[in-house]
Amino acid sequence: MSHRKRHKEYLKKVSKAVKNDSQRLAIERTTKRFDENRKKSLKDIENFEELRKEARKIREKGLENLFENIKKFTCEFEKVGGRVIKANTSAEASGFITDLAKKKNVDLIVKSKSLTTEEINLNERLNDAGIKVVETDLGEWIVQLKGEKPSHLLAPAIHLTCEEIAKLFSQVTGKKLPADPSTLVEVARNELRNFFCNAGMGITGANFLISESGTITLVSNEGNARLVSGFPPVHVAIAGIEKFVTSLEETVKLLKLLTISATGQKISTYVSFITGPSRTADIELNITLGAHGPKEVYLIVLDNGRSRMYEDEDFREALYCIRCGACLNVCPVYKEIGGHVFGHVYMGGIGAVLTAFLNGLENAREMAFSCTGCKACSEVCPVKIDIPRLLLKLRERIVKKEGLPWVKKVIFKKLMKNRELFHMAIKTASKLQKPFIKGGTTLRHIPLFFSKYTKSRYLPAIARESLREILEKNPIKKNENPKFKAAFFSGCLIDFIYPEIGKSILKLLGEENVETVFPFEQTCCGIPVLYSGDTGTAKEMALQNIEVLKSFDFIITGCATCLEALRNEYPLLLKNNPTQKAEAESLAKKSYDFSEFLIKFLNYKPKGISNKKVTYHDSCHLHRGLEITEEPRELLQGVKGLNFIEMEFPCHCCGAAGSFAFEYAEISEAILERKLETIRKTGATTVATACPGCIMQIKGGLREAGDKIEVKHIAEILAEN
């Protein structure tokens, strides 16, 4: 299937998912509980960040010594009667299990805790061989009954409400059942109990594999994992090569982070350590295998593309994942469309990377690009995986293989890279937009292939005069004895869409005796290009801007996205060239957000009086990317008479994310609606933020909904007082 056709199919699934209010409600209920429980548990841990750092080191060490760990585990496990099978592919793994079941005359298999078996399509293979498979995790059993796949790493049936599950169980039992969790759990217990006793084989996954002792570690709350691994005469565990840990001591540290991050528990109800088959030495100290538990225990160590990831320095980090699911619980995209759409076997951002290596790049493309880049996932990851960075690298790989869409190719490589041509194109567009301007400042119902961008939202019109045109006519006045000299890096949105923000920033800096220069040679920061996977062009744009800005003492911007480019992305983009890297790092050290500069260097105290009721939205780039959170609030709260109201979840993504808002418009709009609801609940008359992209998104959404709430850049609020 071509990329274009695959993209259309994906958007159809997205459209269906965002309209499924029942699914969105179910996901919101559960992910919110998970995240609240996690935060509550973290209050009791003083050194959580240190634990995260230590956990990452443990995962790094485990992979650095991977082959030694596998060898050690195999030796110890087989000493006590277990058997290790190495499977290079999913077909080898599922084939071995199927052949073993046939050899043992198994006609019923019970399973628990094994998303890895979904990766190898094990159930389908066993069913084709005439072997019945019963999932015994409650969530897994529910989705099996519905003929679906798991939609969350931890809670497979998260997409279903209690009412829907009650209806399903009523069909299974032939009885009308209430939507009561206790009743439904009792039904599952009664229905599944006989399967444990009659199964000829139990199949589980493994959370960790302890090399020093040859021990399989299983974590669960329901107790079924113990029954699956303990009742049948044959136990087969399957795990990826990344699950090896050196010692029990290290495993305990990871277990603590796993359970807190997954469910908010200090420790899960059951932690099982399985070291080979069950055994007894009660008769004259003669060790005999197969006492009350299984007589045979097999561990299948699955590669299936993991070795390629292990050898790839860009993506090895993804193997640190301990499958806690915390990233999904905070992911704005996942909450709107769920794991059946935003996933293949593994879900979300980390799932996109795993899918690329385990199930093919073509199955990962849409997942990789339908991410807002909000960084909420990396903020909660217990082993500090930089998932957004991995996704940028994945997008780069995809573009290298498939190329850019022709529209982006023209815009990025022909227009945005050429400053004069880019500015000329913007000027031309400002004239062509006139028939579609509504109310003097917004666009709606643009024709041709642009129509989808304004189908259900307002976009801001290109300003009649750009900031650069305004400053060409009215140059910035020079200060006689300035405190500081700085360059103002406007970014595209402030320059061409919101020049009033730029004017406000320049006004305030001038009043504080800062001599500010607007370098007319500056161009786009390159983030839209980088986030589209065109790293090569992004590097060229970075070099252009560094050349223009490097001679200045300070670079000040009012765009959070641009600052993240200047401070974080440029040094990474140019890291392979020592000279360019040094210049990028030098630029990064002297680049500041407008609010940050006012507080840090000017000790600015707002002037004037305001009677506004203002709430503040943290942009993802400023909050998580740059960790600038207090300065904007300090400035707003310093305005006399201003009533500052903190909204609930101020750092939740608004769904803007550059071209994401257009390419995945329905997801963007669904994310935005949640943000608008939190804004409305504050009763504020003004929303302040420090990101022009967020302004465009939130202002367009409020206007579409008919709200009278105004949206302002923090600089505009300060300048008008």
From TrEMBL:
<dbReference type="GO" id="GO:0006089">
    <property type="term" value="P:lactate metabolic process"/>
</dbReference>
<keyword id="KW-0677">Repeat</keyword>
<dbReference type="GO" id="GO:0046872">
    <property type="term" value="F:metal ion binding"/>
</dbReference>
<dbReference type="Pfam" id="PF02754">
    <property type="entry name" value="CCG"/>
</dbReference>
<feature type="domain" description="4Fe-4S ferredoxin-type">
    <location>
        <begin position="311"/>
        <end position="333"/>
    </location>
</feature>
<dbReference type="InterPro" id="IPR017900">
    <property type="entry name" value="4Fe4S_Fe_S_CS"/>
</dbReference>
<dbReference type="InterPro" id="IPR037171">
    <property type="entry name" value="NagB/RpiA_transferase-like"/>
</dbReference>
<keyword id="KW-0813">Transport</keyword>
<feature type="domain" description="4Fe-4S ferredoxin-type">
    <location>
        <begin position="361"/>
        <end position="390"/>
    </location>
</feature>
<dbReference type="InterPro" id="IPR004452">
    <property type="entry name" value="LutB/LldF"/>
</dbReference>
<dbReference type="Pfam" id="PF13183">
    <property type="entry name" value="Fer4_8"/>
</dbReference>
<dbReference type="InterPro" id="IPR004017">
    <property type="entry name" value="Cys_rich_dom"/>
</dbReference>
<keyword id="KW-0408">Iron</keyword>
<dbReference type="Pfam" id="PF02589">
    <property type="entry name" value="LUD_dom"/>
</dbReference>
<keyword id="KW-0249">Electron transport</keyword>
<dbReference type="InterPro" id="IPR054704">
    <property type="entry name" value="Quin_L_LdhH-like"/>
</dbReference>
<protein>
    <recommendedName>
        <fullName>4Fe-4S ferredoxin-type domain-containing protein</fullName>
    </recommendedName>
</protein>
<dbReference type="GO" id="GO:0016491">
    <property type="term" value="F:oxidoreductase activity"/>
</dbReference>
<dbReference type="InterPro" id="IPR009051">
    <property type="entry name" value="Helical_ferredxn"/>
</dbReference>
<dbReference type="GO" id="GO:0051539">
    <property type="term" value="F:4 iron, 4 sulfur cluster binding"/>
</dbReference>
<keyword id="KW-0411">Iron-sulfur</keyword>
<dbReference type="InterPro" id="IPR017896">
    <property type="entry name" value="4Fe4S_Fe-S-bd"/>
</dbReference>
<dbReference type="InterPro" id="IPR003741">
    <property type="entry name" value="LUD_dom"/>
</dbReference>
<keyword id="KW-0004">4Fe-4S</keyword>
<keyword id="KW-0479">Metal-binding</keyword>
<dbReference type="InterPro" id="IPR024185">
    <property type="entry name" value="FTHF_cligase-like_sf"/>
</dbReference>
